[in-house]
Here is the input.
Amino acid sequence: MKNILDASSVINDNKTRNLAEETLSGKSKKGIITRLIPFIGPAFIASIAYVDPGNFATNIQSGSEFGYTLLWVILVSNLMAMLIQSLSAKLGIATGNNLAEHCRNHYSKPVVIGMWILMELVAMATDLAEFLGAAIGFQLLFGFPLIIGGILTAICTFLILGLERYGFRPLEIAIAVMASVIALCYILETALDKPDFKMLVYNSFVPRFSGTESIILAAGILGATVMPHAIFLHSALTQQRIIVKHPDKLKKLFRFEILDVLIAMGIASFVNMAMLIMAASTFHQHGYTSVATIEEAHLTLAPLLGSAASWIFAISLLASGLSSSTVGTSAGQVMMQGFLHRHIPVWLRRIITIIPSLTVIALGLDPTRTLVISQVILSFGLPFAIIPLIIFTKNKNIMGVLVNKKTTTILLSFIAGLIIFLNIYLIYQVLFIG
Here is the structure.
């Protein structure tokens, strides 16, 4: 049976690679959409990290408490994410190695060990958000206790990850379908909540805060949008997917990957903004400024917008939790294998990452507040992913023809500086001003 699965995997992967090679060689006579399809996938897997349950938590709190005020944070964060994910993908395409492997090859052992420990903590915070979100989704839809929802989440994650036995394409398709479900749910939610488009546009482009809590939530939005584990994962998704050596083909392959990023991250950006818009136009606008949990949001939607809205919300949360939990497990594998050159079975990693989530459930901690805190932790881990990415992608000896332009490096450096500044300011506000 295993030999049959391995053969199926090779056939699926080779078919995609052959179609890609035809397009890169200029031999394909097919339409643009057909030519684009073999290159679509890696960014969709990475983009799931940008619409995980942590986003639900931070966006609901932000929208209900501050209305449309922090909408600009989501827009800016997603534009940052597009650039960062493009460069992560480019690193894998240009070198055949992922970001964690480059860190292992270029840094001293103590630095590598330190980075691995930090990224494992980030991965745990990530998985906590995703695992809890899916468990809450099961609870909202079917009335299961959180502990049962957690167990079901683990089982579903194993099943989805099992698609990798058939090659990279089935898993990409499964994740893309779940991303489409989330997007469709929020198209319906946006139609139901009838937002104030004038205020929506204004707050999308005028940066402002409203006290310390808004800064904490802004850091949470940033951590939930530009995610460290997605940066490491994306370079792994492209490193061996379609292998080319000719400089012109490398450039063409990267241009297709940029399209993949724009489409996938564009959808993720819409979903993120729609989450906050829903909370602002439904809760904040009706005086429900203290809707601080996902459960409260679900219950409040029904009397305000009808039972359909609460069902749509729960379905989108479940799809988000299951897909992002799957991606988070894959990212954890990539980081461990890249930093340490060690591999543990997926089932063992899944069991290990379940423990913090089940502990939160067992202790009776507020799941939504825990989700928000986990996203702030992610924000603190970002510089340790972005700074190495800048260093490697600006090095011509590493990147060859795909080395960054000077303007790209300057822009990415500015983004890293902005993230570090925001985190330092956040610590100052919380510890010394309160």
